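Notes continue from the previous slide.

Worked example: a multi-chain complex. Inputs as given:
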Amino acid sequence: MQDKIKKIRIQSASEINLAENSKQLENFRIKYLGRRGEVTLLLKDLAKLSPKQRPQIGKLINDLKKEIDSSIKTRNEEIKLKSAEDGEGDWIDLTMPGVKLPEGHLHPTTAAIQEITEIFSKIGYTRERYPEVETDWYAFEGLNMPKDHPARDEWETFFFSPKIVLTPHTSSGQLREMEKGKLPIRMINISKCYRRQSDVSHTPMFYQFEGLHIDKNISIANLKGTIDYFIKEFFSGKREFRLRPFHFRFTEPSFEIDITCDICQGKGVLENGQKCRLCKEGWLELGGAGMVHPNVLKAGKIDPKKYSGFAFGWGVERVLMMKPGMNIDDIRMIYKNDLRFLEQF
Ligand SMILES: [Zn+2]
């Protein structure tokens, strides 16, 4: 009996080690451990032994059984590993489309900033960025708004101290650009601005883009031409605009720019005869513009008798909302970081 056990141990070990696939291994498992397998039959023969011999031989047979079972498993792993290395594992159809990984994209504001930068770079404007924290001089005083002037109220500024403010508008970049001392100037300053306001059309933090063009003989005609060019490019030629006289301290004359409403096509009335809820009269306010005030040129150390210029400052999110088909009825959505909203762009 012990010789038989020894013989099966040697034979099974060599057979299992030489097996080349899992089918062969299964055949060996049946040959040794199956219902009529050689090891199983040995166990049945135990009954023929004397009670004294039984425990000792029984243990040997059980050990052999475990040994065969374990070497079949080990060999099976080796075969699997080898076929994976050889590329013979699960069949792969290389013509099937792959699993698509989630892909991010630019935030709509970032995309709008890039587009605005590109539009103005085509007509010679250079993108600039100026500080988010500014001194009172650049934000107000140098822009013809002396201390205690009521015009300051409109900016609802966050003051850190009487002299330091969170930049309330990109116009502060005008003086910084002039201070460089290089003329002519064609600057587009796109930066973050902060004001104490929050409703459907305002957020406490927002982006503005500020155009500044200073050269000899610059007139309102140049301003109008530049605005016309931007509006045609950014709104795909589908909008009209108008200059509406207004008052700002840092420009003279000053205007607000209105563009025709996308919802009612500038009619103020919808096709069903109802008044347009968005614009009420066909025009939407885009932002401010005007000829740079001589006092501001002086503050920037430019001689207003020799040079003139125009400036305009508009909200990036505001123009983004006015793009045809955007359909954003609350500006705060842009910064809520809600993927259901952002993934639509
Ligand atoms: Zn309208």
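Summary box: The chain is about 35% helix and 20% strand. Residues 2-85 form one domain.
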